[in-house]
Amino acid sequence: MHIAFLTPMASVTLDVVRTLLPSDCTINFAQTTSKEEHAKLLADADIAMVVGTYMDGDLIRQAPRLKMIQKWGIGVDKIDLAAAKEKGIVVAITAGATSTPVSEHTVLLMLAVSRRLPVAHRGLCEGKWNAIDLRTVCSKLEGKTVGMFGFGSIAQHVAKRLSGFDVNIIYHSRRQVAPEIENRLQARYVDFESLLAQSDVLSLHAPLSAQTHHRFNSDTFAKMKRGAILINTARGELIDEPALVQALQTGQLSGAGLDTYEAEPPRADNPLFLMDQVVTTPHSAAGVYDNVPYLVGHMFKNIALFRQGLPIASADLITSNEPLRRTT
After folding, report:
1. Which of 25, 64, 92, 170 has an alpha carbon within 20 to 30 A of 250's alpha carbon?
2. What is the pTM of this model?
3. How far apart are CA 80 and CA 69, in angstroms?
4. Distance between CA 175 and CA 308 in Å, rounded?
5. What whole-number distance in Å separates Cα of residue 232 and Cα of residue 218?
6. Which CATH number is 99-280's, of 3.30.1330.90, 3.40.50.720, 3.40.50.2000, 3.40.640.10?
7. What one-character DSSP code corresponds to residue 8?
């Protein structure tokens, strides 16, 4: 069984992949993000492993032996699922494997924005003692209402980690979670309009889809509580960035913590990078080294199940190997 790993990664990360690679598998690693190199690697690959790589329909259809795409993480918006289904290619994710690091990073951004951490750090590095000025713009989490847009595994882990901060947690998602989960996490389901109106901190945890693209725009920002903070560790395209810039400039929002962007990597002159009330990270929320063995092991477990003809967990299975049936 031959595997093509299509996303360039740090050598120490790839060493973990090599260490956990099953003895009866071979693997080649992409050196670039070019579609041409990926097509070559897929020419004799049975399985593709991807992190943030685009796999469009052409790339998938031109891979003669491809039987499975295993995603590192959970987002599949860069994979042409229709093309995979058409060819009977299994697409699997690693549900829950990044929930801990992403949820920790989410809380990190909430605190860093609330306490203007970059401003404090930069000031000291520049020889300034700006404690008096920081007191006028910083805020605490205690007593605030934290809203979650989407309430899957990551959002639930965020709620768990916020339990010691004495915050009120509300959420909106496509479906309400079971009462026992709400009770355990002390979370309350609300409609979307109430989520906007009540949240002091609003954290995004929804996948990218036609329904969620630019769901947060000038209209939704206008409906949010004035001075609220927006956190995004999901997908950058959930937010209309020019509208976010305007909301921050006018004070409708008091801050934002962003790990994802509409274009990645974003342009260096992105106006969000010049704002003291914005904390930015380079889509690194899931990127902690001590979680890599767990995540890679999860990937290889799915691959082993597939090779043995055993069912992959429903939470991980995005498309099965049943070809799309045409009705014409």
Report:
1. 170
2. 0.92
3. 11
4. 34
5. 16
6. 3.40.50.720
7. -
**Exposure class string for 227-261: b at 16+ Cβ within 10 A, else e:** ebbbbbbbbbbbbbbebbbebbeeebbbbbbbbbb
* The pair of three-digit structure tokens given for residue 262, joined into one six-digit string: 């509409």
In 3-state terms, what secondary structure has residue 3?
strand
Where are the CATH 3.40.50.720 domain residues in the chain?
Answer: 2-97+289-319, 99-280
The CATH architecture assigned to 2-97+289-319 reads 3-Layer(aba) Sandwich (3.40)
Record the tokens describing residue 228, joined without a space: 């609220």
pLDDT in tens, 273-322: 999 999 999 999 999 999 999 999 999 999 999 999 999 999 999 998 76
Tokens of 268: 């260096």
For residue 86, which phi and psi values (nearest 5 degrees)?
-60, -40
Active site amino acids: 235, 264, 283
